[in-house]
Amino acid sequence: MNNDQTTSPLINAANQSLLFIANRPDIVMERGEGMHLWDMVGKKYLDFIGGWAVTSLGHCPQVIQDALASQAATLINPSPSFYNKPMIEFAKLLTEISN
Question: What is the tens place of the pLDDT at every residue in 13-38?
Answer without folding.
Answer: 999 999 998 888 999 999 999 889 99
